[in-house]
Structure formats: C-alpha cells, structure tokens
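Dear colleague,

Following up on Tuesday's group meeting, I ran the structure prediction for the two-component complex that the binding team flagged. I've pasted the input sequences exactly as they went in, so you can double-check that nothing got truncated or mislabelled along the way. The structure tokens for the whole assembly follow below. Feel free to forward this to whoever is handling the docking comparison.

Inputs:
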Amino acid sequence: MKRTETVAAIGPRTSVTRILPSRGWISLRLDEVWEYRELLYFLIWRDVKVRYKQTALGASWAILQPLMTMLVFTVFFGGLARVGSDGLPYPIFSYAGLLPWTLFAEGVSRSSASLVASSNLIKKVYFPRLIVPASAVFAGVPDFAIAFVVLIGLMAFYGIWPSATILFLPLLLLLVLAIGLGVGMWLSALNVKYRDVRYVVPFFVQIWLFVTPVIYPASKVALKLESRGLPSWLYGLNPMAGVVEGFRWALLGRTASPISLILASTAVTILVVVSGAFYFRRMEKTFADVV
Amino acid sequence: MSDVAIKARNLSKVYELGRKSERYATVRDTLMDAMRGAARALRGTRAKDKPKPETIWALRDMSFDVQRGDVVALIGRNGAGKSTLLKILSRITYPTGGSAEIHGRVGSLLEVGTGFHPELTGRENIFLNGAILGMRKAEIDRQFDAIVEFSELARFMDTAVKHYSTGMYLRLAFAVAAHMDTEILLIDEVLAVGDASFQKKCLGKMGDVAAAGRTVLFVSHNMGAVAGLCKRAIWIDEGGVRADGGVEDVAQRYLGALAQGAFRFDSEDHHLSIREVLLKNAEGNVTSQFAPGEDLVIEIGFEATRRLEKPYIVIVINNLYGPCFAANMQLDGRRPVAFEGSGRMSCRFKAIPLLPQPYTVNLAIRSGNGRDWILPSQEVAAFTVAAPLEDYGFQSEVIHRFAGGAIPVLIPYEWTQPDGSVSSIGITSRELLEGGSNPVGDLVGSE
C-alpha cells in the first residue's frame, strides 16, 4: 500500500501532494471525504432545491408518492389478496414499510446514475468522487422527513403510540442510508464502465421490493424458513428486510423483536459498504477518462 | 523548505485510441471478450492474435519545475498535451507513468462555470460553484460581496441563471473563480470565450493574482495575454516540452513554427476540420514575411463532413501585446451560406499598415446560431512585417531596426511644425511605394 496517489497533509502552506500512477487497491482516504464535507452538503442542497422546481405540486410529491402507493397496496394486497399485516391496520403497516423502502429505492436509482450525470464535474474538477453517489443517497432524507409527518398523522389516526423502541429509529435510518450508499457505490462505478446498468436498475429495484417485507409481513417468511428447519435471521441477508421490519417494530411495536434479523442485515450492509467503497476507489482513477 | 511549487518528472499519459468514439464498454463486449479468451485457451492459441489497441501518448516524459510565485504560460497547438497536463496536476486524471509533486493548495479552473445549475439563482450558484472549486463556505461568505461586485450582477442575484445571457453567465462564473484563494492556480484556456471587455477584466484580475506572488500555470492562445502576464513560457508539443524559457523567446519560436502552416483543427461535434491556414501575398505566393503596404491574404482550407449553415468567421491580427485589427463577420454579417464538403475561403487585408514586428493571426469560428464556439479564438498562423524604417518616412535618429514595443498600426499622418513645414509619415500602398523611389513622405504628401 505504499503507492497511494496522494500524501497530503491537509492545511494551508505545508501540504504536499504527490501525483503518481495509481496501481491496484488503494486506501479509502475517508479523511479527504471529510475534508470535502461542505461540497457534499452543497450537492445535497442542490439536489433537494432543484428536485421540485417547475412542478405544480412541489414538495407535496414527497407525500403523494408513498401515499398513493400505500393506497394501491391497501386495496390490492391488504383488501383483495389479504396478505396479512401482523395485526396492524394494513394502511399503516404498508406505509411504515414504504418509508424506508422509498428512501432506499430512490437513493439507489439516483446514485447509480449520479456519476454519469455528473460527468461534466468529474472531467473538470477534482474532489473525492465518493461525494457524488453519497449526495444522491442523502438527498432523499428531506423527502423522507416530509413523508414521515404523514406517518405520524396515520399513527395518531389509528391511535398507535410508539414505545421505547422508537429509540432504534435513528440507527435504522443510518442503516438504510448505508445500504443505499453501498449499493449506490457499486452501481454508479459499474455504470461508468457498463452503461447497461441504467437498464438493469429499475428492474433490479422492483425485484428487490418483492423480496423485502414491504407488502407482506416478515413473519410469513420466517414461518416458511422455520418450517424447513432454517433460522429465521437468514431473511436478514436481504439487508432491507431487517430495516423495513425494524422500522415497523421501532415505530409501531406489536410485532416480535426482529433484533436477529437486524443484526444479520447490519452485517451484510457492512460487507456491501466496505466492498463498494473499495471497488469505487479502485475504479475512481479511470472515471475522468471513461465517463 | 525548497521553493519549488510544482515538480514534474517524466510525466506520461497514454490513452487508448477508440476510447473516444466508443467511450464505454458494455457488459456484452466484456463477456464476449472473456468467452473468446476462454475459447482461445481451449484451442491452445495465444491471445496475441487479437490486435493490440492503438494508443496515443498525450504526454511523454514531461519534466519541469515551477518555482513558488512563478507565473508560467503553457503554449502549444491543440492536442499538444496542455490540457492533459493540467488535468493530471489537478488530480482529475492519473498519469500512466512518472510523478509530480505539488507544494501548496491547488485551485484549478479548467472551465468557467463548472457545476452551475440553470435552475438555481445567481446567489445560490456562487455558493455551489465555489464549493465545487474547493472553497470553504466561510471563505465564500467572506468573499461574497467582492464576487458580486466583480460580476456586476448585483441586481440579478436572485434570478435563476437560466435567464442569464451568455455574457452574464460567464461574468458570474469567472467572478467566483477569480476569488479562489489557493497558493497554486492552474488555469486552462478559459478566456477564449467571452467578449473583449470581459477578457480585459479577467486578464487584469489574473495580473493581480500574479502580482500577489501566487504560483500560476495557465494555458493560453492569446500571445498578448502571455506576454503581459508572465516572464516564462513552456511550449508543449506532442506531449513533451519543446521549449522552456523567457516568454518572448519561447513565443517567438512557437510562432515561427506556426508560420509553416502547421495549424490543424478538428471539431467532432460540428463535423468540421480546418485542414490548413495559409498566408499569401498579393501574388498568391505562400509567405510568412510581408512588407508594409502589401496585401495580406489569409486562406482557410476546410472540410465539412456535414453541412454547416452560416458560420461566423472572425480573424484577428495581433502583435505580442494585443489585437491590431480584425475581420469580423459578427460585425459585417457577410457569412458564407454554408460550409459543405472540402473547400477554401480567404480574407484579404489590403495594404497592411503595420510596423516591422512579429504578428499572429487568430481565427475563431462560431456556429450559425451565434452561440456555440466551433473553434474558440486561437493562433492559427504567424508572420512578420519587415521593412527598413526609412520606408515609413521615419528619420534615422529615432530608428531602431525593429520597431518592437511600438503601437504597430501606422495610419499615414503628418506633422505641421512651428515654422509651417509639413512632414508626412506612413505608407498607403505597396504599389505607390514601388512606383517611385522617392521618400514616402513625398508620396503621401503629393496625393
């Protein structure tokens, strides 16, 4: 690991930057990402600011999207198909699942396209490229916050009050962002080289929705696994399974504690994030030449 | 601590040809390659029957030092490697070989207005663009008023940038960039766009930056700017350093090489190639030396693979310190109907009234909509004017052999002395001068 491309003591005057051909695996240089945190902030701010420009309904879209999806799910899955909802009213059951899911799905879609969309920046300015997919993922947080207000309304309507488990919510929020970032790093870096990614992503996100307990409760999958003698935490290998189930548990209570599921999901998330970060850094040096 | 700001050693950069047009692979290609490789392995043949991708060396073993506080101009043809060098020094792309060492914080300006978002207001774009250029928010806050003032756009700060004119957009973008506060500045040819007053202002700002003792490395095709701003120039050619030294000397050598008709230019976006630019005299002979009062014909050979409607051509004659005169279709409106296939066009300046100095010819081409640059203004040829100064009617006591430094365009004029005597200076046309062997003064006076 001697051949890192920069050896920079950040700070004015004394900094020395060495530019060398970059070979093989390189360090993540997270300190540099930290150094550029203000740019991260500004890119998120830009995405948020621009998103609902020239729309008639503006930021209400952040509420309308999950709300309409929830209504459709309630009519077809809750009403017609009767998939079950662990004893919760189906609207609030699906809405609580849709919140983290939308944050994740939007983050993945945006971040996978982010590098190619920012090719102009990448070819003309230096900054840690990690900031680009990261800002795309984090830019979903304000939408999430707006949609969350509706959830509070729904909870009040159904008379569901959160218990102490709500303290897990910030951690779970971090976990969704981490999964989004991990997948986003992989897909955005792949997309620079293989433009096929842009056709795969919508399909990939849709399949992922079906293997995640948004529409149906995780308990159904757990039952199936246990009936075959398999531990129920295996479902947590889909990291979004742990997150979505965790959200319902943290906010609405009433379901069994999904701690083992969340732990399995966390382990997978760490794997995806670390591998994604290294893959991203490895490909980063070619971005400006290829994008 | 040494006083070296930038130290480049054997920097090389290789691009694979074909990358430019194909740009990116698809999964299918990669899979097919892998399968071919596997099939080959099964058959026992070697991979060498697959042709190696052709490569070009954008940079080849380039070495140089820049001292702290130096202002250095990079000059050279299109595609000589100047921009690649700046990209490597800015860490946007990586060298294939060699190394560089940079002491101090680097700010680079390879394009004006990178990251501007059309939907955001001027104020918002100042912050966004500043952050993209590596400025801290606190720094932008502090400089905000100065940026707005420099841009002269105070009234439009809350207007979305998409409603700005091109000129306003450039002013705002450059205003932000001009307030980057790094020890080292890398600047690509960003001044080629924009109108003359804007360029002047930017050059003034760059002069301030240089005077403030910061290290600046900048690419320019404007020899006037080069000579005015710095003492040292590096001429880059075919990825290497062709000459490095005093700016006048290097610029002279570069212009000398240009005079041989070496200029070529290809615009993929607009399907236009400039094959050659030739300078001819009234007799139609190619030359790079003219006499005062002689006609100067600039002939442009082009090839348009797609019909190009009504382009604007601008030709400017410069000396080392700036523009002298021009032929500008944006003023005269005499645009060609179209460029189609291969062809030639020319511009004749009649009886050039120039002093003996070196000159360059800048060519710029804009698309028919008047907005897009096909060829941003740059040197395409160079020539010298040579004549004994007596030919102009100058008196020997003040004559230096080469009227360097003087304002080069000489319109005939006459002095009336206190005693009522009149002395006439200037050349009206070569024919007149050659028609008689009398001193010029008499000729002008006799008209």
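The longest strand of chain A covers residues 16-19.

Cheers,
M.
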